[in-house]
Known about the structure:
Radius of gyration: 19 Å
Low-confidence stretches: 1-8
Largest sheet: 7 strands, mixed
Structural class: alpha/beta
Number of helices: 8
Mean pLDDT: 91
Distance between the termini: 38 Å
Order of helices and strands: HEEEHEEHHEEHHEHEHEE
Number of strands: 11
Strand order of the largest sheet: 7-1-2-8-9-10-11
Helix content: 25-40%
Strand content: 15-25%
Amino acid sequence: HTASKAMSEVRHMKDVQGCIFNIQFYSVHDGPGIRTVVFLKGCPLRCAWCSNPESQNVFPEPGYNESKCLHCHRCLAACPAGALSPAEDGSIIRDAHLCDPRKCSADGNFPCAKACPGKAMFSYGRFVRVEEVMQEVEKDGAIYSRSGGGITLSGGEALMQPEFSAALLATARSRGVHTAMETSACAPENVMREICSLLDYLIVDKLAF
Length: 209
């Protein structure tokens, strides 16, 4: 009975879903050894010096890379809210008051991005299952073994998605992957305690403990 319950919990963890905006490989500044950093969406803080402002909201958001824009303006017709307009130079202006990412797309597949042939329109963030992330993380398993590295959760703030973070860390540990997290520690005490119990290494405000 205990064994079957444990297997059920493992299967559940593999299917837990979260929102991330990047997976960075071969990182050497986010914990010991060579690591894979998973950047989660969502942060309760709004620091003026934030290096990843696109990570602050916990849901996918539309992005725009002007250097890739073909000035075809297909995105204008595709936008259901009429939030896009052309600038004098042909680039695209997005009206943040009209654009509501959560109404436009629940999964980050935005109509403007689908219509953009140059891929200038894209999504900051996507929903993934724990198993999908682990498949990427485990590609560098041999590197972790040689360097003492592993997986690091960053953001945003990983504690904004406690169920996903806990499931990801627990799954990584069950597969012998060293776990670390970068955090502001801005979360309820019970969440902090649970997540810390799954960590081998903790970085708080760039100080390692």
